[in-house]
């Protein structure tokens, strides 16, 4: 579904990614793990067609990625980029006008699940509720690829667990590839099929989560501490 072929990205003298190659399969949920500045967000933005590589090729469904890939990729940014005068409903209507795969019937379910008032102005929403709205907008699309960059940032720890469990209802496990970049490992560990560790713009390790538990007796947190300590 997604393939990186010898990808490098330079930001002036700084390196965002350094000769990265990997492939992600259809129907799996991947965790992209690493410290701040490691290259996680750059990786997601490249899949979404928002950042172009300095070197190499990014493929989604066998096609080289460009800006038009937005019709196949739903991307939840770590940044809060809402139109402040809009209401929740205004933002939903805007997304519906931009994406043919945007499902209004699913939006209504998601709004109820996330406990969001459609008539509330965005500038009146708390950081946590703005985060919930970003999840609603991403999950309401029927895309081949779902990218979530720090999707639980700002959410109360007390509600993260229920929201993570709710994600299971809105992911198409047979047809979607989901990539989650996050620091909230505890909550999402039960969701993940594989994890990729990224540091200084390089993928330094990759593990199947079930094999990690059964063969090595490690949780993702334990594996992460060992990997990044080295």
Automatic annotation (TrEMBL):
Superkingdom of the organism of origin: Bacteria
Lineage per the UniProt record: Bacteria, Bacillati, Bacillota, Bacilli, Bacillales
Family matches, as InterPro entries: AAA+_ATPase, ABC_transporter-like_ATP-bd, P-loop_NTPase
Keywords: ATP-binding, Nucleotide-binding
Protein name: ABC transporter ATP-binding protein
Pfam families: ABC_tran (PF00005)
Domain ABC transporter: 2-225
GO molecular function: ATP binding; ATP hydrolysis activity
Signal peptide coordinates: none
Keyword ATP-binding attached: yes
